[in-house]
UniProtKB/TrEMBL annotation:
It comes from Pseudoalteromonas aurantia. It holds the Pfam family FMN_bind_2. This is Transcriptional regulator. InterPro entries: Split_barrel_FMN-bd, TR_PAI2-type. PROSITE patterns: PROKAR_LIPOPROTEIN.
Amino acid sequence: MSYPPKPFTHIPESQLFELITQYPLATILSCSSTETLGHVCQVPMLFDRDTGTFIGHIAANNPLVRQENNTIKLLFNGPNAYLSPNHCNNDILPSWLYANVEVTGKLELITEHSEQVATMIQLTNHFEQGFDTPWQMNKLNDKMINAMFKQIRFLRITASQYKGNFKLSQNKPMRIREQAIASLQDEGKTSIAQLMLKSLTHK
């Protein structure tokens, strides 16, 4: 018997990419010679679907800096929710719904100054979307930019594999899944309910 069960892992690539884009805070795992379980950190990453690359920045003293040219893993967690028997007329046992994407990729440091500036502009322009007055890099002079760049390091990660694990009751009868979706929506848990709804049409 495979784990995770196949119904939870047969997810269209487009849905994996959508989750990565909507929930960009990645938990990054890398090997370490000094720590048995390796190093873990959280970094918001901007994903380019066309090239399969991620960009971001971290503190200069983050141990991840020493992982250049190594293979690392990024875990993107989507919405999650407790699923009670009450959601499904007591036809199921208590469970938990969730969706995540695991990405394997190779890390490189962006060291060219002009590329660092372009990367910072790209990151801020993206994450500042939605603000009435978005912050922009042109508010900083060269001295301020140089001082900031001494404190951070820029990353590019090229993905080699994507693995999704969407545990959304795909192994349950359709009537139970529909009941759960309706009940979760009534509770205001719309993100997980919408993911479950998409899973109804995916074979």
